[in-house]
Automatic annotation (TrEMBL):
NCBIfam families named among the record's database cross-references: PRK06349.1
Pfam families with a match to the protein in the record: ACT, Homoserine_dh, NAD_binding_3
Protein name, per record: Homoserine dehydrogenase
Residue ranges the record marks as coiled coil: none
InterPro entries named among the record's database cross-references: ACT-like_dom_sf (IPR045865), ACT_dom (IPR002912), Asp/hSer_DH_NAD-bd (IPR005106), HDH (IPR016204), HDH_cat (IPR001342), HDH_CS (IPR019811), NAD(P)-bd_dom_sf (IPR036291)
Enzyme Commission number(s) of this protein: 1.1.1.3
MF term (GO), any: NADP binding
Positions with a binding annotation for NADP(+): C9, G10, L11, G12, T13, V14, G15, G16
Gene Ontology terms: biological process: methionine biosynthetic process; threonine biosynthetic process
Sequence similarity: Belongs to the homoserine dehydrogenase family.
Domain of life: Bacteria
Active site residues of this protein: K203
Keyword Amino-acid biosynthesis: yes
Amino acid sequence: MKPVKVGICGLGTVGGGTFNVLKRNAEEIARRAGRGIEVAQIAARRPNPKCETGATPITADIFDVANNPEIDIVIELIGGYTLARELVLKAIENGKHVVTANKALIAVHGNEIFTKAREKGVMVAFEAAVAGGIPVIKAIREGLAANRINWLAGIINGTGNFILTEMREKGRAFEDVLKEAQALGYAEADPTFDVEGIDAAHKLTILASIAFGIPLQFDKAYTEGISKLTSADVNYAEALGYRIKHLGVARRTDSGFELRVHPTLIPADRLIANVNGVMNAVMVNGDAAGSTLYYGAGAGMEATASAVVADVVDVVRALTTDPENHVPHLAFQPDSLSDHPILPIEACESAYYLRIQAKDHPGVLAQVATILSERGINIESIMQKEVEEQDGLVPMILVTHRVVEARVNDAIAALEALDDVVGSVVRIRVEQLA
Ligand code: HSE
């Protein structure tokens, strides 16, 4: 059988890795796909010194690939929202299948892209968009297809996890670690996407859609970064038996779906709390399978290429399938997506770590306890440290039971209004993931 021809758009880290893996494992991949897979064209602004592209035709214009009649599958690896959207829509219009690693593109424009792809009967595959080399999309979309998914929680940004790990293990400064992550090639072009949780929110949006069968709604995700975390809180969390991780959490509730990315205290003995450095992990809880955990490299040249090439193999295997029998993009049939709302963060529920800086007076703890109890907030544990020399204040650390966020907001406002409380109350959400 004739080989399937693919065009790679973008020959950066992931594009270069994809070319190399397709070339190195060509025989093994063909045995799996049932046909050879040939890179017929590459679009790149500059060569990648890690790739020997040999006689493969190279163009500087990505639309040459989308318009090339020889090409069956366009692999979009240029990143970004705007040009990537135009490229993907053009490829679909030309009847080509698309494989992409672009989480921002899928999270923001996925609904439009999938609608167009269905109209043309082509596939759009995006395993590499979430957690690099971990086949978590396939696991949720296909492996857990029997389940009603209750919740999922993931460490889905390697740069952020690397920063938190280095801060905790070596007491290193935030900026210093971020520079190292950039040098390792993990950080986004705009590193605020990593540290402010935008990259994780893109990925969480995609995971939530395929877990719950809801349209992609990135604009409704709550996003809080790690840039304001202090080593004091990292250490207090440790003393209480927790680790702080930058977690994406999606949860089904009776009133809607929670979709939130924020620093989170997790019990230190959970497997996911011990996922360190640039590694990613996603925990999924389904009613039949219970909790499952997927762990591996969330970024990197060949780890991400592994997911891209697996998608290419999937597309090749399904080339002769009727379009209506393709695995649905968002796991559920498009006319069966749920319109249950995404909840605002005030309506989400979790436990809370609160750190209060108080004056060292009798009765302060009683006032704090009263404010919490008046709002129905149950205290799970409390830790009061010795007076700090530099300001004479007492750090008071509380962990609450689960409560709706609006009540905690109200309590924090009342606490900050107390004469004996100085500055802002630090609030970090806590998840048991049990
Ligand atoms: N910047 C991302 C990360 C790359 O650090 O995880 C993979 O999406």
